[in-house]
Every structure is written in C-alpha cells, then in structure tokens.
C-alpha cells in the first residue's frame, strides 16, 4: 500500500525543520558528509497497512547504528539470550557510543550493551556463517523480510568510506580480541560491520521495520512471527534504555517510545502495539542524534500522547 502524504505531518515537519540549521552532518565519515542538512522527512506505518508521510520519503539513508537493533535480533535468534549476554552486557552508559573507557575498567572486560560500538561489534561477530559474504547475506535477507522490500542493499561508497576511516572501531576490536570477546580476523569483522552500517533504505522501509517491532515481531501483512516475541521485547527495551546514545534518558522522559538513531540522521521508532516510525534528518545534535528528527518526535509525542510511560 502506498504511503499517503499527510497535511498534519507536513506542518510538524515544517516546524521541526526550523532547527536543522543548528545541527551538522556526520562529516567524520566522508561519504555521510555529502548529505543535505536541511532534509527532513517522516513515515508512520500502521498495523492495518495504512501509511502516512511528509517530506521526501523516497530519499535513502544508511542505517548506521539503527542496524545494531536488527543485528541483535538476528543474533538472539541465532545464538540465544544466554550466549549473547555472556559476551555483551545489558546496562546503559553515559559515555559516547564509540568510547573505549568502560572496556578498560569493567571486570570482566565486556561491552556494557549492544548499542554502543564495542557491543555492536561483538554482536556482529556472532552472526552465523562461514564467510563475510554469507553472514552479510543472512543479515540483509532478514532486513529485507522485516521491511518487505527485496530491493534493499548496501551503499558501497559509504561502506568503503567507513572501512577506510574505522580506526577507532579497529582499536575496539583488538581490545575485544585480547579479552576473547571476539575471535575472528579484525579486518573481516570491520568489513562485515561497515557493510552492515551502510545498508540503506528510505523512511517507509524504516517505518515498516518499526511496526514489526511494535507488534512484537509479527509481520502486519502476513501475520507471520518474523522474530520471537521475547526477542522483539529485548530489542525494544534496549531501544528505550540505550537507543539514542547518551541522550536516551532525556529522550525517554520527553518522548517515551522505543527508538534507535544513527549518525546518518535516521531514527526508527516502534510505538508498542500501535505503529512504526521512520525519520530522515541528517543534521545532528551534539549527541549524534538527528536534531530535526528529535524535535519532530517531541511534537508528535506531545500532539498524540505517544509516551508509553
């Protein structure tokens, strides 16, 4: 079903766009620095197939850290909860998403949660398969099923740009390897992780994935249980506690829905039992979240009383 333009959403986007000038795109990854900071769009996907949108929703963004949620779901299905959380913790952190500090002070030395880079690298390491290509294909197939879009792929330019500049992530990998959290070749893991982060889609695809999480893993069109209910619950809990980097607590108070952001300016939201949200807004605030996207969600939550708390 096509996503219909909505006048109310247009007004909210118009209002939220006023502050995009206060943000900046993530130019530390050169390919992401090409984005237009004034872009802002949203799609809202309902369980009954209705979809409403505003802005240029056909523009694509790379998932970046949003991919961490989906990869966690796949790995929980692959390995089980006990295996995963023996190697990655469940606790939020006030440190930046790419910090190495807590790894050095934690005993045992494992990442605090799957939403920071160290934890995400450990989770990506757990994707089953014999080669990078096989593992990436399994993840991509899962994402295509969630979004109901077989054309989704990754952006090779962004993946290469991230691979070439992933020095801090390499350092995290070597630290994790020293402490037996990961065991594979670091360059192969970085290759897989950068491709994972470079998977790209539009707001409609993002909102479609969001509604599957909102429905506890059920495909709204077929009724198929794509992921177990408990897996969806765990992922949504991490989205609430850690999904918006170290602004997650403030986000929970002001907006109050499970959501995950990425430094491309994407935000995926899942309002439990109600609908999925996909947002594109490349201009970021100082925490690495879409500045226009956060404002848009604040307006949405206030207007429609979205908070689950």
TrEMBL record:
A GO term, aspect molecular function: glutaminase activity
Keyword set includes Acetylation: yes
Catalysed conversion reaction: L-glutamine + H2O = L-glutamate + NH4(+)
InterPro entries: Beta-lactam/transpept-like, Glutaminase
Binding locations of substrate: 65, 117, 162, 169, 193, 245, 263
Gene3D superfamilies named in the record: DD-peptidase/beta-lactamase superfamily
Subunit structure, interactors included: Homotetramer.
Similarity section: Belongs to the glutaminase family.
PANTHER family xrefs: GLUTAMINASE
Record-given protein name: Glutaminase
Organism taxonomic ancestry: Bacteria, Bacillati, Bacillota, Bacilli, Bacillales
């Amino acid at each position: 079903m096509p996503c219909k333009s909505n006048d109310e959403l247009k007004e909210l986007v118009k209002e939220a766009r006023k502050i995009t000038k206060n943000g900046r795109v993530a130019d530390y990854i050169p390919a992401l620095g090409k984005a237009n900071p004034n872009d802002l769009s949203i799609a809202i996907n309902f369980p009954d197939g209705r979809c409403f949108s505003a802005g240029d929703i056909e523009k694509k963004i790379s998932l970046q850290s949003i991919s961490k949620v989906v990869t966690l779901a796949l790995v929980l299905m692959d390995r089980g909860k006990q295996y995963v959380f023996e190697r990655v913790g469940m606790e939020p952190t006030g440190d930046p998403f790419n910090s190495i500090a807590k790894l050095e002070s934690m005993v045992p030395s494992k990442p605090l949660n799957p939403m920071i880079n160290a934890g995400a690298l450990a989770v990506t390491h757990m994707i089953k398969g014999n080669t990078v290509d096989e593992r990436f294909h399994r993840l991509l197939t899962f994402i295509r099923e969630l979004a109901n879009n077989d054309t989704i792929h990754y952006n090779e330019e962004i993946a290469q740009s991230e691979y070439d500049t992933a020095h801090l992530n390499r350092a995290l990998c070597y630290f994790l390897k020293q402490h037996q959290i990961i065991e594979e070749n670091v360059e192969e893991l970085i290759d897989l992780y950068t491709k994972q982060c470079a998977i790209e889609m539009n707001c409609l695809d993002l909102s479609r994935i969001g509604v599957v999480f909102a429905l506890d893993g059920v495909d709204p069109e077929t009724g198929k249980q794509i992921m177990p209910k408990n897996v969806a619950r765990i992922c949504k809990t991490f989205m609430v506690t850690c999904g918006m980097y170290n602004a997650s607590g403030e986000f929970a108070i002001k907006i109050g829905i499970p959501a995950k952001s990425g430094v491309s300016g994407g935000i995926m939201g899942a309002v439990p039992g109600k609908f999925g949200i996909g947002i594109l807004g490349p201009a970021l605030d100082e925490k690495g979240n879409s500045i226009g996207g956060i404002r848009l969600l604040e307006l949405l939550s206030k207007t429609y009383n979205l908070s689950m708390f």
